[in-house]
Amino acid sequence: MAGHAKASGDANTSGHGGHHVVPVRVYLGVFAALLVLTALTTAAAFRDLGPFNNVVALGIAVLKATLVVLFFMHVKYSTRLTGLVIAAALCWMVILVALTLGDYWARGWLGVAGR
Amino acid sequence: MSPDGHATAVHGGGAHAAAAHAGHFDSAEQQRESASLGMWVFLVTELMFFGGLFLAYIVYRSAWPEAFGAASHHLDVRLGTFNTIVLIGSSLTMALAVRSAQLGRRQAVVIFLVLTMILGATFLGVKAYEYHHKAVEHLLPGHGFQFEGADPRHASMFFCLYFAMTGLHALHMIVGLGILTVMLIMGARGRFSAAYYNPIECSGLYWHFVDIIWIFLFPLLYLLERHG
């Protein structure tokens, strides 16, 4: 684990005593991208894309969240240990959702004795 | 974390560098990384906390898609979009407040924090108006619930989840405004510098996390079955 403490050195750090100061134009660019994606998701919701309405809505939400996490929350410039914590959390979320939905999906497959 | 090489380098910098971090850390950098890692551990527990509600939503919506679609039409997309833009804007000003703290610009920290709080309060104001509107329309789940549709029972379930999820989110926003008030006082007193800005960095992480929850709540609750 000791190696992770130094991992920020691998990222694109600029001067400033070891921490990264993100240029304002990066923040403004992310902000503009988030606004465009918000407009896109709202516009897409009013068109009939069949089963893809949900895919587009969730895909855009995931993209927006990724932009916020990487740039506003500085994960792009943070240690790999931070990334590991987030990845672990997402793994547990997938387990939570996948096993629960698997249960509801497969519930009718087998008869219940005595019912 | 085991101590590593850069510790000596920082202590070699003299009393000024040593004063920037607590005694049990090797360096200001290690202290900063520990603080943000700790904040992330807290935020992923928050993710699990909201995750249960998101899961409940997914299960109920896949079971009764028509009732959820009909109920969703009673939400105002314009207000939801407006609030999404407001919250994204507040994330931008929050990021700029943290950046100003990193650069030791005291006045800019105060300005950006005030802007963030104004946008946060705007979001809560619109939310309060929406809640009031739902109450007037008899869409609060319970005895007074009235719904013109095929399946009022499960439309009521949609509104249960709507109020639970947006209510928990709004509660986080209120807590966030409290935290930002403390940051505003610290910032105005010049407590942040290029060497020490952990509190405002962690507050920023919290604020952005709350923004991310809304990024998912908006399409899931407001943009359901809008076409056709």
Question: What's the short version?
Answer:
The complex is a heterodimer of chains A (115) and B (228). With 115 residues, chain A is mainly α.
What does this structure look like?
The complex is a heterodimer of chains A (115) and B (228). Chain A is an all-alpha fold and 115 residues long. Chain A folds into 2 domains: 70 residues; 37 residues. Helix content of chain A is 61%, strand content 0%. Chain A contains 3 helices and no strands. The N and C termini of chain A lie far apart (54 Å). The N terminus of chain A is likely disordered. Chain B is mostly helical and 228 residues long. Chain B has one domain: Cytochrome c oxidase, subunit III, four-helix bundle (Four Helix Bundle (Hemerythrin (Met), subunit A), Up-down Bundle), CATH 1.20.120. Chain B has 8 helices and no strands. In chain B, helix 3 packs parallel to helix 8. The longest helix of chain B is centred in the last third of the chain and has 37 residues. Chain B is elongated, with a radius of gyration of 22 Å. The N and C termini of chain B lie far apart (57 Å). The N terminus of chain B is likely disordered. Chains A and B meet through helix 1, helix 2 and helix 3 of A and helix 3, helix 5 and helix 8 of B.
